[in-house]
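Thread title: Can someone regenerate the structure for this chain?

I was given the following input by a collaborator and told the matching structure tokens would be attached. They weren't. Posting the sequence so someone can regenerate them.
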Amino acid sequence: MPNEQVFELKVNLLDFSSRTISSNKLSWQQGIISHIETLGAEDPGLDYLLPGFIDAHVHIESSMLLPSEFARLAVRHGTIATVSDPHEIANVLGIQGVEFMLSNADKTPFNVFFGAPSCVPATPFETAGAEISLADIETLFASSKVKYLSEMMNFPGVLSSSPEVMAKLALAKKYGFPIDGHAPGLVSDKAAQYAQAGISTDHECTSLAEARDKIAAGMKILIREGSAARDFTTLHPLISEYPDKVMFCSDDKHPDQLYHGHINELVIAAVALGHNVFDVLTCACITPVEHYQLPLACLQTGQAMDAVLVDNLKDFTVKSTWLGGEKVAQQGQTLLASVSESAPNCFKAKKVALETLEITASIGQIRVIDVCEGKLFTQEKLCHSDDFKQQIVTPDKLILSAKPDNDIAQLTVLNRYQENALPANAFVTGTGIQSGAIASTVAHDSHNIIAIGCDIVAIQKAINTLIDIKGGICVVDKERVHTLALPVAGLMSLDTGENVAREYEQIDHLAKSLGFTLTAPFMTLSFLALLVIPELKLSDKGLFDGRDFSFKTLNV
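Best answer:
Regenerated them for you:
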């Protein structure tokens, strides 16, 4: 039998145990590192070989790309793996959706480590297309195709020792899997109780005090820098304080931003802020492997050649990426091929009538959702009925409409899983929109149709357009309608990552031309139905307060 080809590189390698850098000759054969020869001290003339970056918590579906296409873009930035929660597609299609993601990910050498969704549907206060039962979770655990229990968003259920929740946690412990957390704002004794239930991470911290409190309770913190939620600036001091208890993640990353960068951007930013490169790369490359018990290499003899080559430890310009010894990216270009795929979906909604979008209220104070740029948190803002456009119905009843001059827009959510459901309507401020409407079937976590606009005619047109195409995102600008179709569960495209990134960039620009002052209008819109993040949100069943998990009336 002829000898397999041996590949060699002369590079600088980092030793994370001694925190030293040396020049080496590294060889690999059949995808496995076969020999490492130390040549001497660090050589500034050589490139640096790193274990590869890991996104420690991401919903791939939010990129609007299949896992195989997400991989094609991510490897360009030195990402070799993701820890992925498929609960977006699970909310639409159940365990069949999870199996679809597993199947597609198997068609790429990229490392996608999925978890079993723990909260599908996320709450009983919204309508999802499917559910993931305890039996479904055990099926996934027993298959050995998942690596952990995905984020336990039902933190009230944990704190109250809900039998259903505790059974899921017990099942994960039985199989020896880590349990991901999701507990925004939880601190002190409640955070300790949450951690003691076996939950080991949180990616929802928005203050250093909250993050340090959770670390003290025994949890690891994922610093998130996504398209809508960006916490790096606040939380980066943790990198030097607790590098073995911190990881980096994007959570939700839209395709245009993924095209331009990924975890590498956090690495560059952290080093630029003065954090030690070993601490930064521990967060980006090492801690996720250790925490999630991932079968990934750390550039040792006998391990797989999963690695990224960068020009220096300041700019981290990615020159090449390898997976299992195969070069999958070079000089900013992906070498992974696209794969063909089917388009499973669940979409039953019928077109909405204009009168169902009208909002009737009494004279007085009105609850309005107040959006905060860069945060998933919203606030409850009290406006007076005089702040809206008005049409008098009776002396004490009004039809209220959006009033762009006061930065008040209408928000609508329509159940897409039933034929004749009526839309839920409310108001939102803080977006800046001045005309038209946008709509999306990417609406966490149940992924009903969500729309925001300045008049009900534009909102109706946006919603009905998405019903026609069975899922996607849409911009209505006067008489013009622009769409990006997402035929896979109303969440993902079948097109290439490059094409989707280009199309999304165009439609995002069109959305911003309506007056949005938000960095990511569609991503922000998608979270306005996320009931597990306080304060005020809108589900297909009505206005909801995430502080006490109760519905609220429009009038105070």
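The chain has two domains: 54-295, 354-551.
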